[in-house]
Design a protein that fits this description.
Blueprint (H helix, E strand, L loop, with lengths): L5 H102 L11
Length: 118
């Protein structure tokens, strides 16, 4: 039975090994490149998250200021509304007193009649 010569098999194995080594080296290079890209991506993400954190801190400061402003403004607004009701009530009370005085004046003469004299 004729077989494949040993030298031919050895050459094929060497070629296969060489292709495997080259493939392995390319794969290793690609993995290193991918690792470098992931490192760059991780740095970019860290920078973006830092920017987001800064923005959120600014908004948080603005919200704190708005919250404190509202806490201060609520009593002022309530006081102004109460003052408006008070002024309205006093104006209505004054108006009713003026009406009563006017109705009394309409009933009574302004000047007493002169007395017939000597």
């Amino acid at each position: 039975m004729p077989g494949i010569p040993t030298e031919h098999l050895a050459d094929q194995i060497r070629e296969t090994n060489q292709r495997l080594v080259e493939s392995h080296e390319r794969l290793a290079d690609e993995i290193h490149e991918l690792s470098r890209k992931f490192d760059d991506f991780r740095v970019e993400i860290a920078v973006k998250l830092g920017e987001i954190n800064t923005t959120l801190e600014n908004h948080q400061t603005s919200l704190r200021f708005a919250g404190r402003s509202i806490i201060i403004l609520i009593p002022v607004v309530i006081t102004l509304i109460g003052a408006a009701f008070g002024i309205t009530w006093y104006a209505a009370k004054l108006d009713s007193r003026v009406e009563r005085i006017e109705s009394r004046l309409d009933k009574a003469p302004l000047l007493p009649a002169p007395k017939p004299g000597p």
